[in-house]
Design brief:
Length: 386
């Protein structure tokens, strides 16, 4: 069973009378990779800064191993941070960048406990080399940091943070400055490093793919509140409300009525599903992921609609289909031309039913998505004519 390492209890924070954290409660386990995920302004970075000691909450407590640490300064916490801007020292080589924190450390002298001495040079060298190997930078000790790639600079920043042997590493959108391919590579690398060093990583991002790829636990936030906590699989397959369903992946979110357990009604048709626990004829939100929809001949369809837009995405087509004025997104390898009438079929396990919430009616209609593609297509035609 995992041991609880950090607990945030009833945290509140505001800037200029605007509430940023609204009575936030969260616990984080030892050796866990936990991601705070949400849009800009949701409070995720403020939460990270409070854990690191860079910001003091207006109210509430931060507990570390059961001890309240609200008043403990950052340098006395067993926590280190890697920011989006790595802040490496350009006048120092890779080895000295990583060794910097160790050279600042002092510990009691065995011969005189009242006196503090620096770490032995041999211990510093051994710990730095071990950490460079852990982040796949063995042999880079003498390189200048400005001669490294973005991914290599990030690894130096991580090694510099980890060489001090913290119990927790905080990462504030550290992949934001990298190009797409390198960002994907570093997602795998960060997870590997976390598993190898065996400490807690708390990661902040607005990128759903990063969260799904690396995390043991995802905390979805909006407007200073936690919307859902769960594994990547739970968050994606069982979203709690329309905000989570929309923020994690693409979702068609439709008004429905729960006729009875395992039977939901949309567009006047009844669809078998796997959900239960609702009242009979309770209004609900129905989530259908674009990849869970099969295109079939009209006569075989549970619903029929008209294709309004088709975009080739390499591995698949993004197809916008109009069902009685509400536009769905379907992701498929089968091509259907604009204007075609199609049928769709959805298996029971492709339908997820949610309680109505304050987010109901705000997401899930791909009308604007379709308009954006129409504008792009028009721009390309205009460009061809000039």
């Amino acid at each position: 069973m995992s041991k609880e390492l950090i607990r945030l209890r009833d945290l509140c924070m505001a800037y200029d009378d605007e509430l940023v954290l609204d009575h936030l409660n969260l616990y984080i386990n030892d050796k866990e990779f936990l991601t705070l995920l949400g849009p800009s302004g949701c409070g995720k970075t403020t939460t990270l800064r409070i854990i690191g000691g860079f910001t003091t909450p207006l109210s509430g407590d931060v507990l570390f191993d059961g001890v309240r640490i609200n008043d403990v300064p950052p340098y006395k916490r067993q926590i280190n941070t890697v920011f989006q801007k790595y802040a490496l020292f350009p006048h120092l080589n890779v080895f000295e960048n990583v060794a910097f924190g160790l050279r600042m450390q002092r510990r009691p002298d065995p011969s005189d406990p009242k006196r503090k001495s620096r770490l032995p040079e041999e211990e510093i060298r051994q710990r730095v080399l071990e950490m460079l190997e852990a982040v796949s930078l063995k042999g880079f000790e003498n390189r200048r940091t400005d001669a490294l790639s973005g991914g290599q600079q990030q690894r130096v920043a991580i090694a510099r943070a980890l060489v001090n042997r913290p119990k927790v590493l905080l990462l504030d959108e550290p992949l934001g400055a990298l190009d797409l391919k390198l960002r994907k590579d570093m997602q795998i690398e960060l997870k590997r490093i976390q598993q190898q060093v065996g400490i807690t990583f708390i990661y902040v991002t607005h990128d759903q793919e990063e969260a799904l790829t690396m995390s043991d636990t995802i905390v979805v936030m909006d407007k200073g509140s936690i919307q859902q906590i769960g594994t990547p699989e739970d968050i994606y397959n069982e979203p709690k409300n329309a905000f989570v369903a929309d923020f994690i992946g693409e979702s068609n979110i439709i008004d429905g009525v729960m006729v009875q357990d395992k039977l939901v009604q949309m567009y006047g048709r009844q669809f078998p599903c796997l959900d239960g626990g609702f009242s009979e004829n309770e209004p609900v939100d129905v989530v259908i992921r674009p990849e869970d929809i099969d295109i079939v001949p009209v006569e075989q369809g549970q619903l029929t609609g008209t294709v309004t837009n088709v975009t080739f995405k390499g591995m698949q087509y993004d197809i916008i289909v109009d069902f009685r004025g509400f536009k769905w997104l379907i992701q498929t390898t089968d091509h259907s031309p604009v204007g075609a009438r199609i049928g769709i079929k959805i298996d029971p396990d492709g339908i997820h039913v949610m309680k109505k919430s304050r987010y109901s009616g705000l997401y899930g209609d791909y009308s604007s998505f379709s308009d954006e593609y129409d504008e792009l297509d028009a721009a390309e035609v205009d460009g061809d004519e000039t």
